[in-house]
Amino acid sequence: MKKYRIILIPQMDAWEEFYKITESLSEISDGYLMSSNSSVPHITLSKFEAEDKAVEKIWNSCRMTVVPNVEFYGLTFAKRKVNWALVLTKRTEIVPFQKKVYEILNTHNLKLDEIIRESYIPHLTLIRTPLSELEIIKKLGDFSFLFEKKLKWNLVIARSGKYGKIKEKDTVYST
Question: For 106-152, where are the E strands, in sequence order?
Answer without folding.
Answer: 123-129
